Amino acid sequence: MLQSPHAKQQAAIAPAWKSIETKIGTLLYVPAELGIPTNKTKSGKRPTSEAYTPKIWPGTSIQLSAKPFSKDETADDSDAMKLEDSIYRDVNLDGTRITRIGFRTSAGWPSIDMEGKKDDETYFRYRACRTKNRTFMLSISGKSIPDQAVLNKVLDSFKPPKDAGPGPLGKWGPVPQTVLLADGHLSVWSPFVLAASDDVPDFGEDNVHPRAFESEFGYSSFAVYYVDLPPSLIEQYDEEGIDRFITSHYENNDDGEPVRLGKFEGYTLSDVHFRSVTYADDTIDGRVDATVKDGKFYLFAASVPRGMLESTDVKRFFSSVIFK
Q1: Residue-level pLDDT at 309
Q2: CA distances (Å), 94 to each of 78, 117, 214, 302, 306, in order?
Q3: What is the pLDDT of residue 44?
Q4: Residue 268: band (very low, low, confident or very high) from pLDDT cuts 50, 70, 90
Q5: Are 184 and 135 part of one and the same domain?
Q6: pLDDT at 147 > cutoff 90
Q7: Residues 244 and 126 occupy one common structural domain
Q8: Contacting residues for 152 by C-beta, under 8 A, at least 6 apart
Q9: Does 7 reside within a domain?
Q10: For the chain, which terminal residue's Cβ has fewer other Cβ atoms within 10 angstroms, N or C?
């Protein structure tokens, strides 16, 4: 079958790709014109970092690093927390909007993908992988970022050095789900599996029995709480009452330190009126929405790393609420 002149031209200008082993030992599949050299040293001590400013991606910086685990790590922290921390040591959360965090495996090792933008409009993507004794990291940043399909192809190819060996994991990471709660009267989507919890809010009444469903992965958590209000309490949960309840339960963080509460606002979703407020401390952003519907008090909460309140997962969680 003969190729058309246009198809031949397209084939001629299609960029060539190559598999490389970087100087720090990580494996990548990149456009040949990117300018990242293949490591030709087969013995000796590897460098711990390398950096490039490729001509084909003007204004873009590529950084690769291999670091031993931080001495400040808390042994009981999850791999997800430790991976997030490895990136937060590079990224100043002040003036940063994190738009997405994803978890996956790379050659059987836990890996994280983080995407965001700084106030000066610098875009960044990180891929970090944690092996037995090192964290390997790839970051691509700049104000002019290459085509997303190309960028994803490069990031998805990032693997730890061959001598790290295969990791122990198959699948790893949270599982998104849509759940029915409140005897099927409430539907909500969560980026993590919501599980029943005994950590329920205190309503100050013996005859009030709240239900709690919570989920957590890394430094992000999502929760749904609801309770049947006795007639004596329903009138107390008007807009001002809801605002007072939220303030009393969220004015301090888990360490007992005061947070910065934002301004309460109201909005309507599917004909149901909600009260909503955001809060922040030095490392965490949060949002709490609450409403009273058919004699039940409902509260929805998310706590995420600084700069992440506008992420896809947070927006979807709050906008997914449906009463049936």
Answers
A1: 93
A2: 24, 11, 28, 19, 8
A3: 66
A4: very high
A5: no
A6: no
A7: no
A8: none
A9: no
A10: N
**Dist CA 232 CA 9 (whole Å):** 77
pLDDT at 5 over 70: no
Whether 12 has a pLDDT exceeding 70, the answer reads no
Q: Are 189 and 157 part of one and the same domain?
A: no
Domain carrying residue 156: 15-164
Asked if the model's pLDDT at residue 295 lies above 90, the reply is: yes
The band of 228, judged by pLDDT with boundaries at 50, 70 and 90, is very high
In angstroms, the first-to-last Cα distance of the chain is 58
222 plus 112 within the same structural domain: no
The answer to whether 307 and 116 have CB atoms below 8 angstroms apart is: yes
Sign of the CA dihedral 43, 44, 45, 50?
negative
Q: Is the residue at 235 inside a domain? A: yes
Q: What six digits make up the tokens of 18?
A: 């190559």
- Report the distance separating Cα 243 and Cα 256, nearest Å: 20
* Rounded (10°) CA dihedral 183, 184, 190, 196: 20
Longest dimension (CA), the chain: 82
Task: Look at residues 131, 164, 197 and tell me which one is the last residue of a structural domain.
Answer: 164
The values of phi and psi at residue 292, to 5°, are -115, 125
Residue ending a domain, choose from 109, 141, 164: 164
